[in-house]
Amino acid sequence: FYLQIKRNIYFNKVHCPLNTQCLLASYTVQSELGDFNPIEHQPGYLNNMQLIPEQNEDTERRISELHKLHRGLLPANAELNYLEHAKRLDFYGIDLHKAT
């Protein structure tokens, strides 16, 4: 379920404001990379991760700052937090179809 919602947000199937995209991405980073470590996680450590549709240096910096706040959060809890925030989005769980 987490992976499907993440995919829907990445491919703009669910409207998600940029600030929320960055927050959700920070939970993904916590889930996949664990706690922020300044030695391991140098500037640019998010370059190869496809986190949000309009990813750039500024958004990566924002995601990194949020990632730092998740210290100690286990991967399963990071994914749960992702889902908790995602379910508040407009059109969450709704699949729109074109009427003909």
Automatic annotation (TrEMBL):
Residue ranges constituting the FERM domain according to the UniProt record: 1-100
Gene Ontology BP term (one): animal organ morphogenesis
Annotated Gene Ontology cellular component terms: cell periphery; cytoskeleton
Domain of life: Eukaryota
Record-given protein name: FERM domain-containing protein
Gene3D superfamilies reported in the protein's UniProt record: 1.20.80.10
One Pfam family linked to the record: FERM_M
